[in-house]
Model the fold of this input.
Amino acid sequence: MGQKINPLGFRLGTTQSHHSLWFAQPKNYSEGLQEDQKIRNSIKSFVKKNTKIASGVEGIARIEIQKRIDVIQVIIYMGFPKLLIENRPKRIEELQIHVQKELNCVNQKLNIIITRISNPYGNPNILAEFIAGQLKNRVSFRKAMKKAIELTEQADTKGIQVQIAGRLDGKEIARVEWIREGRVPLQTIRAKIDYCSYTVRTIYGVLGIKIWTFIDKK
Done:
């Protein structure tokens, strides 16, 4: 029996914290959840439109949302903030206006902060975007996986596992291929593991990318 669990949910409260911090009554909970999804989608679409990216990597590691009574604070952790910030204050203002239009929030003020992360290629979301860009450019999936692992070696991670599923290289039958480097102890709760799943649309169909990175043992 393969009983699988999301590595981030499994570690909540030990090595993993929530990406959204707010409280709501049970009847309003679903609205708050949809609002979070809207904020994340509108930020990602804005970054996609307004950055000229050669590698296909947007560089958003994660988006944290903190809601208070009158303020929504959004912290964007980016690997390559220079992609968004050529003329910083103006760009952030544009982004705030864009998100506020999507949300239609009148009573709450929106604050957006951009924070740079130190090792971009140690983050699975940025790695998944890199692999997705390679697959869209018809690079062999094995080459893309190996290149991603080479990039993580510079980022001081203790282990990485990359899995790609779907019609790999345009073959008729879908299959799953994976590669691991170093240690990835998924059943140890103390192990700080970062994870992401990412879908990429290619001309052959949808491929699924999953990445686990073992950062540190707390």
Remarks:
- The mean pLDDT is 87.
- DSSP finds five helices and eight strands in the chain.
